[in-house]
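R.M. (postdoc): so does anyone remember the format we settled on? I'll just put the structure tokens first.
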């Protein structure tokens, strides 16, 4: 029973990781972010979760900096992969 639970947890993590890396969320907010975030801004994403907003902010601040802060280890493990694969 424990082995099945661990496999299920791993599959859930892989599924969630795939969604965080591949899927694009919150793009209906892009016009608002374009008005607020400038190319050389510092953006602090507190509670970054898996980085959906951090991905958007980093594309809008090519000369700036995005700090993504996430205290939860589960989300942070996915955020690190998102950051690496998107070269953020």
């Amino acid at each position: 029973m424990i082995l099945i639970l661990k496999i299920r947890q791993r599959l859930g993590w892989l599924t969630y990781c795939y969604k965080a890396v591949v899927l694009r969320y919150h793009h209906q907010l892009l016009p608002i972010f374009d008005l607020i975030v400038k190319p050389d801004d510092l953006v602090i994403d507190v509670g970054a979760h898996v980085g959906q907003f951090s991905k958007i902010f980093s594309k809008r601040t090519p000369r700036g900096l995005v700090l993504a802060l996430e205290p939860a280890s589960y989300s942070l493990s996915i955020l690190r992969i998102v950051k690496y694969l998107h070269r953020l």
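R.M.: ...and that's the designed sequence above, right after the tokens. Also worth knowing: The mean pLDDT is 90. Helices lie at 2-22, 30-36, 52-60, 73-85.
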